Amino acid sequence: GQNIDQPTEMTATEGAIVQINCTYQTSGFNGLFWYQQHAGEAPTFLSYNVLDGLEEKGRFSSFLSRSKGYSYLLLKELQMKDSASYLCALPNDYKLSFGAGTTVTVRA
Amino acid sequence: KAGVTQTPRYLIKTRGQQVTLSCSPISGHRSVSWYQQTPGQGLQFLFEYFSETQRNKGNFPGRFSGRQFSNSRSEMNVSTLELGDSALYLCASSLVDGGISGNTIYFGEGSWLTVV
């Protein structure tokens, strides 16, 4: 089975940096996905990590430590449009298992 | 290229009725998955299909069923609807393996089902 934990909510100011943590337990690791979901919309792909380390993609970066069962998504230079739910997910057996999601609110 | 297309986008049904939701994956994608999203349970996996074969099924009652056609399009059906079936139903497509090898999974806009 799999267990995925994320904080429920985070609030930050426009222009700031926010780090969303995801800890997981899994019997077989096939990488970790991060998705962004705005209210009422479909989840959209942000990143995929399968090897340890940091992957940077513009304002968004994702980090993975397989030995610690830990990942984080780093959002830099926050913008109002970044207010959304952020989901980490583990692929296994042809499916994604999602965490409950972290709702990020960006304030002016 | 066109994304994942789901129809209908919104629908209201009465308890006891049945509903069929449709999904057209991204061209060339052969793996189609379905997920249910509710405020209380989050995103829950329903089933995954590849080449018209169901490869995995989530922990949902038998009232939830699905199928995939030879052109990779998929449908899911919920029979004897209950109030608790009210949710956003999301279809997702990927090249072949539902994300296992890192192939990105793309989601459709979803079908909002309200059961009254």
Strand and helix layout:
The complex is a heterodimer of chains A (108) and B (116).
Chain A: E1 2-5, E2 9-13, E3 18-26, E4 32-37, E5 44-49, E6 53-57, E7 60-65, E8 70-75, E9 84-92, E10 95-98, E11 102-107
Parallel strand pairs in A: 2-11
Antiparallel strand pairs in A: 1-3, 3-8, 4-5, 4-9, 6-7, 7-8, 9-10, 9-11
Chain B: E1 5-7, E2 10-13, E3 19-24, E4 31-38, E5 42-50, E6 53-57, E7 64-68, E8 74-78, E9 87-94, E10 106-107, E11 111-115
Parallel strand pairs in B: 2-11
Antiparallel strand pairs in B: 1-3, 3-8, 4-5, 4-9, 5-6, 7-8, 9-10, 9-11
How would you explain this protein's 3D organization?
The complex is a heterodimer of chains A (108) and B (116). Chain A is mostly beta strands. Chain A contains no helices and 11 strands. In chain A, strands 2, 4, 5, 9, 10 and 11 form a 6-stranded mixed sheet that branches. Chain A has a 5-stranded antiparallel sheet with strand order 1-3-8-7-6, with no helix packed on it. Chain A is globular. Chain B has 116 residues and is mainly β. Chain B is 0% helix and 52% strand. In chain B, strands 2, 4, 5, 6, 9, 10 and 11 form a 7-stranded mixed sheet that branches. A 4-stranded antiparallel sheet of chain B has the order 1-3-8-7, with no helix packed on it. In chain B, a hairpin with a 2-residue loop joins strand 5 and strand 6. The model of chain B has no long low-confidence stretch (mean pLDDT 94). Chains A and B meet through strand 5, strand 9 and strand 10 of A and strand 4, strand 5 and strand 10 of B.
Task: Give a brief outline of the structure.
With 108 residues, chain A is mainly β.
Helix content of chain B: under 10%
Q: Give a count of the beta strands of chain B, DSSP E runs of length 2 or more.
A: 11
Quaternary assembly: heterodimer
Strand content of chain A: over 45%
**Total count of helical runs of at least 4 residues of chain A:** 0
